[in-house]
Amino acid sequence: MKHTSHADYALRVLMYLRVAPGRRGSVGDIAVAHHVSRNHLEKVVQRLAAAELVETTRGRGGGVRLVLDPTAITVGQVMRAMESDFAVVECLGPARYCRIAGVCGARSVFARALDAYFAVLDDATLEEIAANDDGLRGALGMINGIAGT
């Protein structure tokens, strides 16, 4: 299973905010730090805000900030907020056109695998995946806590 770039970028935004001073930053700074499109990140941040994982403030001194403590945000929660389709096989999705659906055992195997996948993601927190403060700040070019300075 491969996630969309929105899910990937959502984790990157949250990890940036986890290590940023005051756990806040601007979409522009985050885009520069990760070398990704600002426009793309704006859409990601909007979805994160809709999921109540971040809060955005416009204007001078505004930006994006974490709403919850990093120990309270799970990777599974982020994936569910950013992705809409986890049907790794057709029979897990809403439309079932497979001729052998209902008579084969594949659906239950893939459903159990998906449950196990989310059990792992639900056990992993933002705090855990972004625990290397100095390493992340260095990789993101955050000198004095600000990207690109």
From TrEMBL:
Species the sequence originates in: Pseudonocardia hydrocarbonoxydans
Domain of life per record: Bacteria
Entry-linked SUPFAM superfamilies: Winged helix' DNA-binding domain (SSF46785)
Keyword match DNA-binding: yes
Record GO terms (molecular function): DNA binding; DNA-binding transcription factor activity
Cofactor(s) this protein requires: [2Fe-2S] cluster
Annotated protein name in UniProt: HTH-type transcriptional regulator NsrR
Record keywords: DNA-binding
Pfam families assigned to the protein according to its UniProt record, in alphabetical order: Rrf2 (PF02082)
CC terms in the record's Gene Ontology section: cytosol
